[in-house]
Design goal:
Two copies of one chain form a homodimer.
Chain A: H1 4-19, H2 24-42, E1 45-51, E2 58-63, E3 66-67, E4 71-72, H3 82-90, H4 99-117, H5 123-141, E5 146-151, E6 158-167, E7 173-176, E8 178-179, H6 187-200, E9 205-211, E10 215-217, E11 222-225, H7 229-238, E12 244-247, H8 252-255, E13 266-268, H9 270-279
Parallel strand pairs in A: 1-11, 7-9, 8-9, 9-12, 12-13
Antiparallel strand pairs in A: 1-2, 2-3, 2-4, 5-6, 6-7, 10-11
Helix pairs in contact in A: 1-2, 1-5, 2-3, 2-4, 3-4, 4-5
């Protein structure tokens, strides 16, 4: 049945994030929706799925007749202490042990709870993930992002919508697209980077793409990762250059892109916590 | 109820188009699916919808409990002679009166029939439209397109999937994305054009985008057009340059883009029949 409490917490998060993404209200709203989500998930059993991804194990949660998206069972712990998860939200996590594991658990919390309590809701898990990651960056950079950029065209002022854009104190700017998964839509990210480069100069905006996972559950309940590494290399060579791609559950085929030209810098998201100061 | 005959004709078209898009089997398969589709639609009544699009009237067809997508009732005639519609498929239509009207009717035939006989099938109308437009271009250019391009990278041969690409005799190449509607996904078209430009040189591929319509039926059964002209202008200025954008039901806000920099050439698709020779 629909979880009214979860729906209320989601609405509260959306409002707080819109008003002040880096602020205390957003932090509180994230803490509360994560706590409620983990409470939903902790009451379930996780059954193994057949993994077609080398080196990774996946399972899924069940609640009544509903099943969840695939869960990387080496990265997710439904019995983790909430204080570890709250440290991620609070921006105090950089020295934590097992940071990859806490990050993945917190990012999957609401998406799993939504899978298990609602039908056909593809939108709210993506929006939650965007608010969570946006909040982490906004706290780290101590500024809120915008979602529009001015087109520097002659004679009229026009703005167009973008992913999050941060303007930092030293005239550095960050372009931050955030996606639960990318699939064939990923070319949009490179295209928007090219647009920003074209409008405001190459290197003016550093593009950081943040993704949760590329898993896909087949009808036979086996799990694959959908990866297009040749396309990514071509986009990085010929469309625009992303500075980093961070994953909570990194596909090995994308991590390997670091090793061959054009050496796209794909990393576990935990790396951000150690290198954030060098990005700004 | 599902229309088995229509489903069989759709499968036959898909197979013929894959084997030889310009060929006689594809022409025959298009003729047959168009005839069956018009037979489905001609048995329905078209009821007016409230149009929020200045200068255009829209309606929708009903069959049992199903309703169709919006129909531009000034461009669609369900009682048109099949010979007029077949002339479009056969490539003998360039001197026809009311070409815009025959083009719109033939393009809407199967999408309407699918709306009225199936639930939740968003894919097959788009594929039909792609086969129809692809066939018209392949007949006109007397060559079949490919759907992959080789990435000219150093030391290894890699190909990636694309929209239709035609290699013409004079070393001219056409990049032909075909979309029922574009919405916010349209940036993909400019990104793929930029990719081709980057890989093979500016001007090597002429980009021709072909779209059916940008209508959207609201829940209250009124019709709007979803247009993003500022984004289009920014993409054309800063990402890549499309040579033409053709519409079967052209939105006025996109047609107007011709009049201001960067003067994107948006035209009714009928123009292609008169200018095809100058494109190649």
């Amino acid at each position: 049945m629909p979880n009214q409490k979860l729906a209320g917490l989601y609405s509260r998060l959306a409002l707080a994030a819109k008003n002040d993404l880096k602020g205390a209200d957003t932090r509180t709203a994230l803490r509360e929706i994560i706590a409620e989500s983990m409470s939903v998930v902790s009451g379930t059993s996780i059954t193994p799925l057949q993994s077609n991804v080398a080196g990774k194990r996946y399972g899924m949660a069940r609640l009544g007749s509903r099943t969840s998206r695939p869960i990387n069972t080496d990265l997710f712990d439904k019995n983790v202490s909430l204080s570890s998860l709250f440290a991620i939200v609070d921006g105090t996590a950089s020295s934590m042990n097992n940071l990859d594991w806490a990050l993945y658990t917190v990012a999957m919390s609401y998406p799993l709870a939504a899978d298990l309590t609602k039908d056909g809701d593809k939108k709210s898990p993506g929006t939650f993930f965007e608010h969570l990651v946006g909040h982490i960056f906004a706290v780290k950079f101590q500024t809120n992002p915008t979602r529009r950029v001015i087109v520097p065209t002659l004679g009229k002022e026009v703005s167009i919508p973008t992913d999050y854009v941060f303007e930092l104190a030293n005239d550095r700017r960050i372009h931050l697209p955030i996606k639960i998964s990318t699939r064939e839509r990923v070319v949009q990210v490179w295209a928007h980077q090219k647009l920003l480069d074209g409008m405001h100069g190459h290197g003016r905006f550093r593009g950081l793409l943040v993704c949760l996972t590329e898993t896909n559950k087949q009808q036979d309940t086996s799990v694959t990762e959908v990866c297009l590494p040749h396309q990514w290399a071509a986009y990085q060579m010929y469309v625009a250059q992303l500075h980093r791609v961070y994953y909570f559950d990194p596909p090995e085929r994308y991590i390997s892109l670091r090793n061959t030209y054009p050496n796209i810098q794909v990393w576990p998201f935990s790396k951000f916590f150690n290198e954030a100061q060098s990005l700004i």
